[in-house]
């Protein structure tokens, strides 16, 4: 400990407060006492005195750190936590495996490695590190578990964040719940707030709004002594904003998301951008939001945006913004091609129902029904998926002439929507169907009043949705300026077939010339937005989505 750092410590005698006792032990270079105090009072120091805690950790001699290598990780963790903006997302000091003397040392180092891996976008590898750390924890005897209990709120929160960023929302919720329980037991109020906020976000994303509100209510009130009291956990604001959208209060949602300084929660950039995209549906500014989003993506490591939950949320955000702008080709290409898996994760099911809602908005009910009918049985744990899926299925059956089945599905959706406060999942053209059912005497007007008087979204229809896959491909080439011969060569068809396809396109879109077609196509996002081909976590390239969705030339 240097003379300068010693002078930074208040010179109290051995007092009764944990800080005074730690101060006295550091000044007296009683490192064994310092270790005992850190183990016994870690939550108190993190909640109330993190700067002094960092000074204490920085004062530890090299020999003490060598015997307790987890404290190197702890020192870096506290420094990262105190730095509100621009802090690195990786730990600078790794600890060699031969230095890991205790289970807590191993858990701390494995957790630090998972943080470094997720910062690089290697979410699969990061989850593997978390799994290994959990194996270490599972092998502990009761007394050993008690010895590490005070570190578990932060460890399990980090494990939850790793799983969330990997798209493993159910497993992440389990970790956040455990983190909250340990934080409550050890009176670690800051970790109570962070884990409760993150749990609320996962619940609200799934549409479990009552559970989301319950978790928000579990966030403990801060006191004037809590240094973090001005840093509301970002996921809590995301939750409140989505709840406001669900309650048809977009102005409130905009105010809430505008309060978030994402620089203080850099790893939460994907949900932040997603919520801003949803707000833009009602409040405008989609073009500006899209430009800011793409500028942000250009500045972060490629894998951060190309894999895991980040990639899925990014796809949903781009789809939302492109849809508001009427750019149907870009909206379609923004979603992942695994969206057709009804038994998939929460994010893939959300993608499926969002695609179906877009199709229904453009009166492509048969195509929409292929998405939503499998979801109705698979999405029972995800009301945000189930409510619109029921409604869209009902619209599809009505459009096919089966009004009895259609009305049953829609009434089921209308019964569920108020139970979860999910009025925002019913879009403008869905309200038109409600009006039709009321006129037919099939629905009580009072049952749909909140939805009928909701603010309209800015989503517009797209004439291009009526085109076949081959006609879409023809438009893509034509909008890029290709001649008939060039289109024929690219699609391996004859020029006469190209002319026939163009004639069909002109008729469906209501245009008469190639110039009119090109102008309309550009307004709706043709040729589709292109991005660099991302590499997956093994380092190999992944084929662009528009290529993987391209129809067979023999169709």
From TrEMBL:
It holds the Pfam family GerE. Residues 523-555 are annotated as: Disordered. The keyword Transcription regulation applies. It comes from the Bacteria. One of its GO terms (molecular function) is DNA binding. SMART domains: HTH_LUXR (SM00421). Residues 460-525 form the HTH luxR-type domain. CDD domains: LuxR_C_like. Keywords: DNA-binding, Transcription, Transcription regulation. InterPro entries: Sig_transdc_resp-reg_C-effctor, TPR-like_helical_dom_sf, Tscrpt_reg_LuxR_C, WH-like_DNA-bd_sf. GO terms for biological process: regulation of DNA-templated transcription. This is Regulatory protein, luxR family. It comes from Herbiconiux ginsengi.
